[in-house]
Amino acid sequence: MLAGLMCGIATFYGMGDGFHGQRTASGEHFSAYRLTATHPSLRMGSIVRVTNQDNMKQVIVRINDRGPYSHADIDLSYGAFTRIAPAHNGNATVCYRVIG
Questions:
Q1: Which residues pair with 92 in a beta bridge?
Q2: pLDDT tens figures, 38-76
């Protein structure tokens, strides 16, 4: 079953925070450069299209971890985040939908 459109704040992790190389909730090793994301409730392995609402850039990620543990609604890997926004922004207003 595909989830409806969700909107909120995206942040990133994996650079300078000690997560790169650690195990994720799915059991795999986290890479800051893979196109992955954390979400508190989407099913592990879900494929999600994330769209930056400021510039309409999109990235497709796979949910492989639980979180975020901050103010964000979805936490993207550094590699995924930098496809849709500059890292120095720190966060982005996004809409996202499960596509597979």
A1: 10
A2: 999 999 999 999 999 999 999 999 999 998 888 899 999
Alpha carbons within 13 A on the beta-carbon side of 49: 12
69: CB partners within 8 A, 6+ apart = none
Helices (H), 1-100: 78-84
Q: Residue 65 corresponds to which tokens in the numbers above?
A: 């971890």
With cut-offs at 50, 70 and 90, classify the pLDDT of residue 17. Answer: confident
Query: In sequence order, what are the residues at sequence separation of 6 or more whose Cβ sits closer than 8 angstroms to the Cβ of residue 48?
Result: 37, 39, 42, 60, 61, 62, 63, 74, 96, 97, 98, 99
Return the closest-CA partner of residue 32 out of 91, 86, 89, 81: 81
- Cis amide leading into 68 (omega within 30): yes
Helix and strand numbers (H, E) in the chain are: 1, 6
